[in-house]
Amino acid sequence: MRIIEKKKILRVVDVNLNRAKEGLRICEDIARFVLDRKKETEQYKNIRHQLTQACSFIDGHKKNVICARNILKDVGKKTVATELKRKGIEDIFYANSQRSKESIRVLEEFMKLMDSKKALACKKMRYRVYELERKISNLF
After folding, report:
1. Is the entire prediction scored with pTM above 0.90?
2. Into how many domains does the chain fold?
3. Those residues with Cβ within 8 angstroms of residue 57's Cβ, 6 or more apart along the chain or in another chain
4. What is the mean pLDDT of residues 33-43?
5. Exposure string over 52-72, b if 16+ CB within 10 A, otherwise e
6. Structural domain boundaries, residue 14
């Protein structure tokens, strides 16, 4: 793998790991503080930590990951109007559940370039998020 390609892969992994963990944390906080669901709170927390572990290979590349970030010139950073509107907590939950699943899927695909076992672990986590989303959605 060429160095430029590796840096771009690290950039994709970095942004999607951050995005997935942010979305999972919001879902976790809704389960914890809004719905008082201990089991689901723990499940979101476990997925978040397992995802961090699955992507732990970037720890050895932190300098490269940070250098690969290009927030000022990011061609996709513009906020979409729908991101600024939420009707209630259910909308916040749904948007962040979607964000988490999409980001985990991206991680799953890029992990296939590096470690098929970790790709499979991401797939399993994504399906666990689907199930948690179903459980939590039934509580609103």
Report:
1. no
2. 1
3. 114, 115
4. 98
5. eebbeeeeebeeebeebeeee
6. 3-137
